[in-house]
Each structure stands twice: as C-alpha cells, then as structure tokens.
Design a protein that fits this description.
With 488 residues, the chain is of the alpha/beta class. The protein has 3 domains: 42-159, no CATH class; 161-286, 3-Layer(aba) Sandwich (Rossmann fold); 292-481, no CATH class. Helix content is 46%, strand content 11%. The strands form 3 sheets. It has a 7-stranded mixed β-sheet. Strands 8-9 form a two-stranded antiparallel sheet. A two-stranded parallel sheet has the order 10-11. It is flat.
C-alpha cells in the first residue's frame, strides 16, 4: 500500500526504495527523477517563456536590420540569453508600474552581465555596436509590451483550461488563512476555494475565513466526495503528526492532488516537488507527473507513437478484424468500461477474444483454460494482439501507450476497498503497457497479493516517470510479448 512517513535521519535514505522487495524505476534509471518545470496551466507555460522569447526575437530583428541576417555570434548570444532568462518571472499579479520597474531592473543586471562577459572575452568585437545599443533599448520595451498583451489575453488562456479546480484547505490556522487569502485575491489562479476542513469550532478560531467550514477532519473523505474536490492543501502543524497520518490515510481512496503547506515533509511521495501558490510554498504529496510541459511532452509522444504504429499495423488490424468476425459470433471490437484519469469512466477497445462481452457489476477475470475464450481469442490474448485497438484510445486521449493498465470498473470497486492507495494509480491515464506488466504482473491477478504487487509497481512508475523509462518499458514489452506465457 502507499505509505506516508515523516522523514527522520535514520529513514531518509529509504525515500525512493520503499518497503516492498522490488526493483524500483529509480534504480532502473540509476537516478532520481529531476524536478520538472511542470506548471499547472497554459498561462503559466506562456509566462515561463515570455521573457526569453521576446529578448531572443528582438535580438534577431536587430541583427537582420544591421547585419542582413543573424550571424553565428548573434545566434550564440541568443542561446546564452535564453538560458539566463528561462523561466520568466511572473508579472501578472502586480501593478503595471511595478511590472515596468521589475523588467527594467532585471534587464539592467542581465545586460551588465552580458557586457562584462563580452569585454572580458573580447567577444564584443563580433557584434555591431549600433546593433547592441539598439537592442539594449528595444528589448525591455518589447518585454513590457508583451507583458501588457499577456494581461489582456490571460482570461482567454484560462478559459482554454475549462472550469477552475475545486480546492479545500485542511487546517484553519494562520498559514491556512494566508493561503486562502492569496487564492481569493488572485485573478489568474485556476483554483476555486470551496472552504476549510477543521475539527475546531468557529469560537476557537482567531479569525473567521471568507469560506465556510465544510466539516471535521474525521469527515474529510466525505467532504472530498460530496464537493468533488480536486486539490487538497494540508495546513497542519508538524506537532500533529498522528492527525496528519490519519488524514492521509482517509484520502488514499481519492484521486485528488494533495499538497502540504509546510512545516513538514514526507517520504514515499507521488511526484513530490516544491511548488508555490501565489508565492506561498507548498509541497506535493500526491500529484500527477504529467503537468504542464511534462504533460505536453507525454501527449506528443503518445500521439506520434500511436500514429506511427497504427500506420504500420493497419493491414494486420484488417486481417484480425476479419478473423474475429469469421471464427465466432459477436462484435469484432469488445468495448468495456474502465477507470481512466482521475477515476473517470472511459470506454476501452479490444479485439473480442471471448464468446461473451461482459461489462456488468460483477466480472470474472480470465483464467487458464477459461471456456469463455475462443480458440482465436487464446492466440490473441497470448500475443497481446487483442490490445492493438487501444492505440485508437491513445489517439482519443483516453489512454497512454505507457501507464497503469486499466481494470474493469467492477474490479476497481472491489480492490479499492481492499488495497490502500489503489485509486492513486488513476492520477495518470491508463496505458496499453506498464511498469507492472514488464515486471511479472501481466495477466491474471488471482490473489490479493498479486494485485498488491501490481499496484506497488504502478505507484513506483508515478513516482519516477521519465521518457527514458517509458521507452525502456516499450522495448521490454515487445521482448516479453514474444515469449511471455502468463497472459490468458
């Protein structure tokens, strides 16, 4: 199960190893996953590249004007400028005058640093002095203009993301109230604060919040379900360790993203990274690895790989479709409801391999010599060819090529009651193949211990995701499919 423990010196080295005897994804990659540049909105991504993009484009424009083209020296300088200024500082929430002052000060030290480096190396001789002087005045003016433009289009960028994420703050203390004030006063934050959860009565509080008290700590799981909460901020003091562990235990059956408003840190985190909400630091306890830039990279890789694979296997898909149709009665494609991202139901496609198409509240897993499996179906399942239509699910955005395998809804409802942290695997899209499947948990999970092992690997994948790990899982899957005898 997922365990959340306070870090003390004697256990700090166990952070990524966990307590179960398995080889972790971190060990496979021989490194910890580095902190990503992940942001939680399109607006944040645009903000992060605004300054370096404007500075580089203005440099190129000046080079075209004075030199006729951006010579190699200008290209080298643009790379250096981008590296120094990425990611940009946010200029949205302050005043216009404050943004102008901040841009001017920031540009002053950047230009001074570049000038000092140029004269120290003699590299300044490679540039037209008129071009550099022109760039010195144009660049900050262009950045300020771009900032004003971003403020104008920010509401539209936010609308692209859909409705705001619903949030609660656990702990109506000083830091919890400060976080609530920052959320409420932000015009560009995609968070709708629904209220607080605290076991104290309003009479014991030093200040009354703008939001309602939604419930007590013992009732937090019901509050999350009833208000459809997506973000949970834990603002509890470190002295309340038993209470914090109890709250985390109550939240293991949800797919909500959980953050600590420090002052404590835990191990066995699901994508544990430091972040901030309007400048207030928070630490993620349970979060998806596919936020912002990482999410875009993952989606692009999914679409590219699935398009390539579908193009290559199109003749095979046609042959298998005809074979399924001619060898048994029933539909060619078997559609089954599964749990996808954030625990939402999705429809998953497979070539039908059984004489039945079960999708009810009680579904028996396929077993060895299962009489429901057709002769062709046995071959399809053994070779995993029945999974090929799921590349269409990937194009639809319902699945990824690599991720935790989706289970039937009936199986999810059973195992979420038996395995703590089971629903955390739904922080990402389900995959055609996964970290568990290439580590011996492919096929039937006929015991609770086997399902527990599969979930342990799924959560390990969430902790340590990287494109390198995805690639190795895909390559290992191809090798295992050719010789694995456990799927039926």
């Amino acid at each position: 199960m997922v365990r959340f423990r306070t870090v003390f010196p004697d256990v700090a080295n166990n952070t990524m190893r966990g307590d179960h005897p398995m080889r972790s994804a971190a060990a496979m990659n021989q490194r910890l996953t580095p902190s990503s540049l992940g942001k939680d909105s399109v607006l944040s991504l645009v903000e992060s590249i605004l300054t370096p993009t404007v500075l580089v484009l203005t440099l190129w424009a000046v080079a075209y004007h004075y030199e006729g083209e951006p010579l190699p020296a200008y290209l080298m300088l643009s790379v250096l400028v981008f590296a120094i200024t990425f990611p940009s500082r946010s200029q949205l929430n302050g005043s216009v005058l404050g943004a102008a002052a901040d841009i001017a000060i920031n540009w002053a030290w950047i230009s001074a640093l570049l000038a000092l480096t140029g004269f120290a190396t003699g590299y300044h001789r490679e540039f037209s002095h008129k071009a550099l002087l022109t760039w010195f005045f144009i660049a900050p003016a262009a950045e300020f203009t771009a900032t004003l433009l971003l403020r104008k289009i920010a509401p539209r960028l936010l609308d692209m993301q859909g409705p705001k994420q619903r949030a609660i703050i656990v702990g109506m203390n000083e830091q919890g109230l400060a976080l609530a004030e920052k959320i409420n006063n932000s015009k560009y934050l995609q968070i709708a604060l629904c209220g607080f959860v605290d076991s104290r009565s309003l009479g014991r509080l030093s200040a009354l919040p703008q939001q309602a008290l939604l419930g007590r700590l013992d009732d937090i799981a019901n509050v999350v379900r009833n208000y459809r909460i997506q973000l949970i901020y834990l603002s509890l003091p470190m002295a309340s360790q038993p209470r914090i562990l109890h709250v985390l235990d109550e939240l293991k059956d949800t797919t909500s993203s959980i953050y600590f408003v420090p002052d404590m840190f835990v191990t066995d985190l699901i994508q544990g990274k430091t972040a901030s909400v309007q400048g207030m630091p928070v630490i993620s306890v349970c979060e998806t690895p596919f936020k912002g830039l990482d999410g875009i990279i993952k989606r692009i890789s999914d679409v590219a790989f699935s398009l390539l694979i579908l193009t290559l296997i199109l003749p095979l898909l046609l042959v298998l479709s005809c074979a399924v149709k001619w060898t048994s009665t029933g539909p060619v494609i078997f559609k089954q409801r599964r749990y996808g991202l954030d625990g939402e139901e999705i429809v998953v496609y497979k070539f039908r391999s059984m004489s039945v198409t079960e999708d009810g509240s009680s579904i028996a897993q396929a077993t060895k010599n299962d009489p429901r499996i057709t002769p062709l179906g046995a071959f399809l399942r053994k070779t995993s060819l029945d999974e090929l239509p799921q590349f269409i699910n990937v194009l639809q955005g319902r699945m990824s090529i690599v991720g935790p395998r989706p289970h039937a809804v009936a199986h999810n409802e059973l195992y979420r009651k038996l395995i703590k942290g089971y629903m955390v695997r739904h922080k990402v899209k389900p995959g055609i193949t996964g970290w568990a499947q290439v580590n011996g948990f492919r096929g039937e999970t006929d015991t609770l211990q086997k399902m527990q092992g599969r979930i342990d690997y799924d959560l390990d994948y969430l902790r340590n995701w990287s494109l390198r790990l995805d690639t190795r899982i895909i390559l290992k899957t191809v090798r295992l499919v050719l010789k694995d005898q456990t799927a039926y």
